[in-house]
Write a structure and sequence with these properties.
With 329 residues, the protein is an alpha/beta fold. The chain has helices at 8-22, 46-50, 62-74, 93-100, 103-106, 136-140, 153-165, 217-229, 249-258, 273-285, 309-312, 316-327; strands spanning 3-7, 26-30, 55-57, 78-82, 116-121, 146-149, 170-175, 182-186, 201-204, 209-213, 235-239, 242-244, 261-268, 294-298. Helix 1 packs parallel to helix 7 (153-165) and helix 3 (62-74) packs parallel to helix 4 (93-100).
Length: 329
């Protein structure tokens, strides 16, 4: 078994390499993904090894990238599009919701769109305007799209390959602040044995309260659980992994045991994923709840300047405060 310690970014790079090796119909396209290897170097070395017909540097035109990929997907290719930063996806939003999400439906199932849209998202890197946003709710709300996000190197390596192999259009959200975090990656485990792409799982077992998180906030939730343990509280942390379709089976089971639930995400709270999750938890687990489902989120303001972004981002203290409030009912 070849288990290596990789950063999340390198795990994505290795997963993309495997996908290119295993299927000649896989193509990668985006701004600076070729010679430069992407601004975060996620595609580093791939154009050199697979050529500029399969790893394609595109013009700075997100709508053109997605529109071209739709045509490629219809003709049997599996395009993987990189949106350079989260805030740059909006010029392509019309293509994504009007074409990518609806082509299979409007063709009565005759046309499939097997494409992946990779979006580095979230803050925490000291970036300028339009480089630190969390647009997941836009896409999770859109019927016809699937939305997933990884939180550790092992999932990054496996989930990107699973997404590319899927016949559905998938928005693949990458937590950019976690690109440099390291973890073990099993490079030999077959995808057929991997955990399902659209399945949540327990990241840390616990008995006293349930914390639901995804993407960049999973690490924050785990850190909060470690801190809470010092005070004698065992928090169960669940990594949601899939945002559309939502898989809350593990969450329901957990909340029915713990009686308390806190949902954490970076995006603003108003109409965020936390609202939907809280509603579903309340419906399913009402008679088990000892307190309302609480949310810890970004604030309802445009993402702030880098010098004050730490005031905006949910952190360990805010998660622990929500846990304290859950126990106060």
């Amino acid at each position: 078994m070849a288990t290596e310690t990789l950063t999340l970014g390198k795990a994505l790079n290795t997963g993309l390499r495997r996908a290119l090796e295993n299927d000649q119909k896989v193509v990668i396209m985006g701004e600076d993904v070729g010679k430069l290897g992407g601004v975060f170097r996620i595609t580093d070395g791939l154009q050199k090894d697979f050529g500029d017909q399969r790893v394609i540097d595109t013009p700075l035109a997100e709508s053109g990238i997605i529109g071209t990929a739709v045509g490629l997907a219809i003709r049997g290719f599996r395009p993987v599009c990189e949106i350079q930063f989260d805030g740059f996806v909006y010029p392509a939003y019309d293509q994504i919701v009007s074409q990518v999400a609806k082509m299979h439906y409007r063709s009565q199932g005759k046309v499939r769109i097997p494409m992946v849209i990779r979006i580095p998202y979230g803050g925490g890197i000291g970036a300028v305007e339009h480089h630190s946003e969390s647009p997941e709710a836009y896409f999770a709300h859109t019927a016809g799209l699937k939305v997933v996000t990884c939180a550790n190197p092992q999932d990054a390596y496996v989930m990107i390959q699973q997404a590319i192999a899927s016949d559905d259009p998938i928005v693949f959200l990458e937590p950019k602040r976690r690109y440099w975090e390291k973890g073990p990656v099993d490079l030999d485990a077959p995808l057929t044995d991997a955990y399902p792409l659209h399945g949540a799982r327990v990241a840390r077992p616990g008995t006293d309260a349930t914390v639901l998180a995804y993407g960049p906030m999973v690490r924050t939730a785990l850190d909060a659980a470690t801190a809470a343990a010092e005070d004698g509280r065992e928090l169960e942390v669940i990594d949601l992994r899939t945002l559309s379709p939502l898989d809350l089976t593990a969450a329901y089971e957990s909340v029915k045991r713990t009686g308390r639930c806190v949902v954490v995400h970076e995006a603003p709270g108003n109409l965020g994923l936390g609202s939907e999750i809280a509603a579903r938890i309340t419906e399913e687990c009402f008679y088990s709840l000892e307190s309302p489902v609480l949310r810890v989120t970004g604030f309802d303001v445009p993402y702030p300047a880098a010098r004050v972004e730490e005031e905006y981002l949910p952190d360990l203290d805010r998660v622990l405060d929500a846990v304290d409030r859950a126990f106060g009912w």
